[in-house]
Amino acid sequence: MNNKLLLFSSSAIATGLLLGANSTTQANASTTNDMSMNHDMQSNMNQKQMGMNHDMQNNMNQKQMGMHHMTQETMMPYYNYNGYTTYDGHFTQDNDFVRALKYDNVMIDGYKVNTAATDKTVTSSKKVYSTMVDMNKDGQVVHITFDTKPNTVSKDMFKKAHMANHMIDEGQTDNGSYMTYKTNNGTYQAFFDDRGYLIKVVIS
After folding, report:
1. Which of 135, 132, 127, 158 is nearest to 146 (CA)?
2. Contact 191, 198 (CB under 8 A)
3. In terms of CB atoms within 10 Å, which of 35, 59, 99, 100 comes out highest?
4. Residue spans per domain, the chain
5. Rounded to the nearest 5°, which phi and psi values hold at 185?
6. Who contacts 83 (Cβ-Cβ below 8 Å, separation ≥6)?
7. Which stretches within 83-124 are classed as H helix?
8. CB 97 within 8 A of CB 91
9. pTM of the model as a whole
10. Residues of the chain with pLDDT > 70: what percent?
11. Is 176 exposed, middle or buried (0-12, 13-18, 19+ CB in 10 A)?
């Protein structure tokens, strides 16, 4: 009787150990599966986050480049004059006007010289206030000539105000003198009377 009980107890213990071992194995497998799932989820989250960060970085870089491009455009010197240029000749001494001339970006009475025009032959002209606009057969502006207020700006004053630009020629006319300046893609000329005062400017 005692032997049977012992055998039964031993069997029960062995069975219990086996069941416990299986439970432990299953628990370990479950833990391993959980860890694998957590790892996959973590990887997916990291990849998504990296993707989002990459996209955000790209978008920010594109925006910054766009803003930089806009800033460059905004910084380009520009000058616009409307009305009679004979009203006050001092605008020709304005630093903004001088810089805008250099960058071929001066507009007079709504017109600006197209320095990219290959055909420089004048086929038509238009008078606007005290400004003459010359155009080629395609309607592209090739010259703008405007008069200035007499006895206002001397040659020395003009030369001093435009000293930052490159003068390529200077000489005499029948009734005065002229100075020619080089711009990025064109030229401009200042004409003076026999007493040395500015009388007109030609932008080409």
Report:
1. 132
2. yes
3. 100
4. 1-75, 79-203
5. -130, 10
6. 109, 129
7. 95-102
8. yes
9. 0.65
10. 64
11. middle
